[in-house]
Amino acid sequence: MQPALSATLPAIPTGLIRIIIVVTAISAAVMELIDVTIVNVALNEIAGALGATIEDVAWVVTSYAIANVIIIPMTGFLAEYFGRKKYYVASIILFTIASYFCASSTSLWQLVLWRFIQGIGGGALLSTSQGIIFDAFPPAKRGIASGIFGMGIILGPTLGPFLGGVIVDNYHWSYIFYVNVPIGIIATILTMLYIAQKPGEGTRKNQITIDYLGILLLAVGVGSLQYVLEKGQSDDWFESKTILVLTVTAVGGLAGFIWRQLTTAHPVVNLRVLSKGTLGVTTIFSFVAGLGLFTSVFVYPVLVQRINGFTPTMTGISLLWPTLVGIPLFPLIGKRLSVGASPLPFIIVGMCTFVVFGFYSGTLNGQANQWDFFWAQMMRVFGVTMLQLPLINQAVAGLPPQDFPSAIALNNMIRQLGGAFGIALANTFVTRDYAQHRYDLVSNLDPANPLLTERLNLLGGASQRAYKILDLTIDKQAYLLAYLDTFRLVGMFFLIILPLVYFLRTKKKSATEIALAAKAMSEAH
Does the CA dihedral 453-457-462-465 come out positive or negative? Predict the structure, then answer.
């Protein structure tokens, strides 16, 4: 079959062309989603290969999240300014090139830089792919489009840790990034050949005002804050001139960003919608949901590989099965919300589930196996499922239809920001908590205690080797206790904000509002 040119494609493609478009868009979206989670199981290997600590290697995850925070609210504007197809192609190319250089990195900070650039490219792939798939179906079949895309959303994060584990155990860690290159090249070619431009796409540049100052303030504020959160503990907080300067920069940047968005006629992020409906309160829940999801998925692989002796493949499999079990819930919740069911009961159940997940995970130990962790991960998946779509639905509750896109974009940005904050918080908390637990454990070592004498004798007597083994054992136990406390901390965040569900109550939406909300969510950035 001869490739069809964009200009000759019908407004709504059919047959093989539609299949190609759907496969192309799903491939790009899944590639981005896999990359969000595939790194988590490889952190130990990356840290060892690049001579970095686990705390520093967290930047590989957070740099991507920060880039997403900056680019996601601008995706709709950039697609309108440059044209959706051109912006989509450019994003795939940028993501693919950055993936190659991530794989080729020889130092931690080189990898962090390219992960940030990769996040800039990846920020457009998910939402723009969703809009492309939506446009490939006639209105009567757009429910099918949502279902197809929903499966992609589920499969990406599910397959990421599993593929990452297989790659790391059998090849070099760099291949978790190299695999994106052929997929990106194919997706670029197919997009250029088969995905049509929308009428008038990219022709309104003269009518669009770019808020350069707002973009700059957002990048400076979020970037500075993230550095302070990540490095504050190791640099002794305000004893460090760098931390002090960046704290002032973060406060000034974020305050300036808020002021700019509330006073300019063309904001890059429409913060004015926070005063309408329940969006202001909903963003608190979205922030904590992002914190819970990113933090738990970051801490879990490090815990089970560092303490429980899991291989990367075992770690990936232990995350895979609970997620696969939870897959059927997504379409069921989506169907209930699409016919006007209130998102509030789902949100309450999701919050309570995360509370139980946090405190239950805090009871596990260094001898726990994959099945011991299975039920905890099942609760995490169930909690995420109950929160993801309902929180997006809740974000637009009580808003006029014209504010739906801004509300959803802002809600998505806040969720990513919560994730980046959560990882930084986890790193700081683990470092402090580990030091305290180690101090407590060492303080309880009494030379006169016959149990200590017996342990040393088993290790070969009061020799240097025996004391070294004992020291490593204490170290391992201190880290275990710190990781378990981190899970409890996640549970506490959800418990603290749970009473705020009282302020999420809204009147039932009409059939027209439900239809408009569904359309806005399908095109959300």
Answer: negative
Expressed in percent and rounded to 5, the helix, strand and coil fractions of the chain are: 80, 0, 20
Query: Which of 74-88, 124-138, 406-420 bottoms out in mean pLDDT, i.e. has the lowest?
Result: 124-138
Q: 215 and 74 in contact (C-beta within 8 Å)?
A: yes
Give pLDDT, residue 160: 79
Helix (H, G, I), strand (E, B) or coil at 449: coil
Q: Are 164 and 87 contacting, i.e. CB atoms less than 8 angstroms apart?
A: no
CA atoms within 13 A on the CB side of 128: 33
Residues 6+ apart with CB under 8 A from 464: none
CB 470 within 8 A of CB 457: no
What's the rounded Cα separation, in Å, for the pair 486 and 228? 19
- The reported pLDDT for the residue numbered 111 is 93
How many C-beta atoms lie closer than 10 Å to residue 170's C-beta?
Answer: 10
Rg (CA), the chain: 24
Mean pLDDT over the full length of the chain: 81
Residue 179 CB neighbours (<10 A): 20
Are 162 and 319 in contact by the 8 Å Cβ rule? The answer is yes
Neighbours of 182 (CB within 10 A): 10
75 touches 63 (CB < 8 A): no
For tokens 């009961």, the residue is: 345
User: How far, rounded to the nearest angstrom, does the alpha carbon of residue 262 sit from its chain's CA centroid?
Assistant: 27
Q: Is the pLDDT of residue 382 over 50?
A: yes
What are the tokens at 165? 């584990």
Q: What are the structure tokens assigned to 50, written together?
A: 């690049």
The residue count of the chain comes to 525
| Calculated CA dihedral for residues 326, 330, 331, 335, nearest 10 degrees | 130
